[in-house]
Design a protein that fits this description.
The protein is α/β, with parallel strands linked by helices and about 250 residues long. The protein contains 8 helices and 9 strands.
Amino acid sequence: MTKPPRGFKPSSRKAGGGALRMKHEKVKTARGRKYSSKLWLQRQLNDPYVIEARRQGYRSRAAFKLIELDEKFHFLKSGARVVDLGAAPGGWCQVAASIVLKGKNGHKGKVVGLDIQEMEELPDITLLHKDFTEPEAPDMLKDALGGEADVVLSDMAAPATGHTATDHIRIMGLCEMALQFAIEVLSPGGLFLSKVLQGGTEDELLNTMKKHFKTVKHAKPPASRADSAEMYVVAIGFKGRAPQEKAED
């Protein structure tokens, strides 16, 4: 697998000394295919991130979201221990592994991914097939990690209902669960990153992040589709757990 270009921006890439020009592919309407499915497929065929992800050997265009977020916040480092929640199909795990598994001073990093969907194995990466909302999931992750984490990532999202308020509540509930897990496993100075919806993080959740982390920011990477309401909250510099919290771990 070729390492992706840092800061990849499809619109500015060059090919043969000139601007990269893509042939626009049209999808013929097949019998039985809904018009909405045709539009989705046509968008996929003409999405430069999808094309580049396929060329680079990444399992999804979402890999570039993590690349761009890391380009901005610099949290993936050689030898780091990373947990990826909502990992399917594995693009974020691939990006993380390409950096953290290099090792530093003889210490090799670790990547553990979890998703409710099954994933094909990836070299040197631990992938768990489990619903994160089930009570035993956090302990499974801790056992697989074998120690504290430096980075906890969450790209989890509940199936969309089409009702904005309901979708927001669901995704914020997953973010809250992921944050609680991050507080339990992160090492001091660690980072938590989670998908949220535009409108930002709710005040109560944001206050919890600010209590446990030195800096909290929102970001929307260029690879996020312009018509998508998704964005990410990034909590930097975990302050550590209180002695009683460590005793309960």
